[in-house]
Amino acid sequence: MKLLKILKKIICLLVVFSIISLIGYTYFLSPTNYAISSYQYTSSKIPSQFDHFKIALFSDCHIKTNDDIERFEKMIDDLNDKPFNMVVFGGDLFEDSIFDGENVSRILKKIDCKYGKFAVLGEKDESLSMEITKILNDGGFEVLNNQNRTIYYNQEKISLLGLDSNKKASTLTKKGNKLFNIALVHTPDSFEHNSNTVDLQLSGHSNGGYFYFPFLGSLVTSDGCETYNHGKYTQGDSTLLITNGVKGTSDLPYKFLCRNEIKLITLNYEQKV
Question: What is the pTM of this model?
Answer without folding.
Answer: 0.94
